[in-house]
Structure formats: structure tokens, C-alpha cells
Amino acid sequence: MDNNIIIPKHIGIIMDGNGRWAKKRMLPRNMGHKKGAEVFQDITRYCNELGLESVTFYAFSTENWKRPVEEVNGIMSLLKEYLIKAFDYEKENNRVVFLGDKSAFSGELLELMLDIEEKTKDRKGMTLNIALNYGARNEIVHATKAIAQMVKNGEIAVEDINEELISNNLYTKGQPDPDFILRPSGEKRISNFLLWQIAYSEFVYMDVLWPDFTRKDLDAAIIEFNKRNRRFGGV
Known about the structure:
- By secondary structure, this protein is an alpha/beta fold.
- 40% of the residues lie in helices and 14% in strands.
- The chain has a single domain (10-135, 177-226), classed as Decaprenyl diphosphate synthase-like (Undecaprenyl pyrophosphate synthetase, 3-Layer(aba) Sandwich).
- The chain has helices at 18-24, 29-50, 69-86, 107-120, 136-152, 163-167, 215-226, and strands spanning 10-14, 54-61, 95-99, 127-134, 180-183, 202-205.
- A 6-stranded parallel beta sheet has the order 3-4-2-1-5-6, with helices on both faces.
- The longest helix is centred in the first third of the chain and has 22 residues, at 29-50.
- It is globular and about 60 Å long.
């Protein structure tokens, strides 16, 4: 990466195209998810090497439960395997945060996620956000309920509600908003991802399926981001 390139603080990545990757190769869809998980691990390490403050991976949405049971079960099995084996806690200095409604997961998966969050909470390196059973509308509803409860309890007045308060009740509390959202696979939609946080994010779309995504592709996305003129509503 060129020294003149500005490294973003936070990138949001929609990992898309696993199923199509497998279909092109006449493989079961879960083979695409397995390959995608391997790419996720490598890109996570590369984001850390580049010096990002945060990276958020959209791994499993609230809508993904509608997929065939066999595929969902395969994803859950892969997630369990990953949580047990793939995190190298000793070498990586990442703080890991799981964004989303964890209550939908099995007790075993929930315990694994909470254990990882607890063990990494004081890490000073990159924050690795993994969005699981995540939907931005649900996140905003969750934040709204929390704020309404504060008003009901007399902790704050309605007049105290502002953008900062809402941001501080989202799953990404304390983190910078994404500088850009990256979506591979050729699709050009946001799919209920970080709707509040991306108010001024740039969007980078790439015609590469996630299991084929490489570090060079991320370099290309960051270079494209550097070409953008971010005015944040100004001139």
C-alpha cells in the first residue's frame, strides 16, 4: 500500500456471494460459506496490519433465517467451529464485538460469543465487529426502547434525546462511523446494514464474489475510497 494512501478508520464489509461462488463450481452452498470464512480470517488480519480502528463484517442478518434449514444449520456449525478454533487470541490484539440480537442463538454459541467478548474487551488494537443476527432496523428499535426506558425512569428528559444519545445506544457505541461500506459480488444495495452509522459513508461496490476476495481487492477498494471527495453536506 502506497504511503500516500489514507487508511480509513472504519470499514463496513458486506460479505456477499458465497452461495453463487459455490453454485458456479457445482458445490453445496455451505462450501461457499466455508471458503468465505477463510477469506474473512485473512482480510481481518490484513485490516489489523493496515492499522484500521474498526472493521465490521456483516456475517448473518436477521433475514438470513429464511434460508433453507440445511444451509442455516451449516452456517451455525461453521460459526461454532470458527469460534472454538479460529480466533488466535494470543497473537491478535483485536477487541471482538458481536453486533446483533444474540438471544436467537443456541446456549453454546451464546456462551462462546460472550466468552470471546469478555476475554478481548480490554484489547487496545483493532475492534473487530461481527454482525450476527443483525438488522439495522432492529438495532434502532433496540436503541429507541432503551432511551424510552431512560425517560420512563426519569433518568433523562425527552429534550435530552439527540444524535449522540442515539449513537451511544447502538451496538457500535464508542466507535467511529464507517468511512466506507464495501460490498463485493456485484450487488448494489445496503441490505439493512448499519443504517444510522452510514449517513455519510462512501460506498464501494466490486464485481468479485466474497470467496474470491483478496488483499489486493481491499487495496483497490481503499484506493477508490481515497479518490472520493467527502464533503459531509458542505461545499
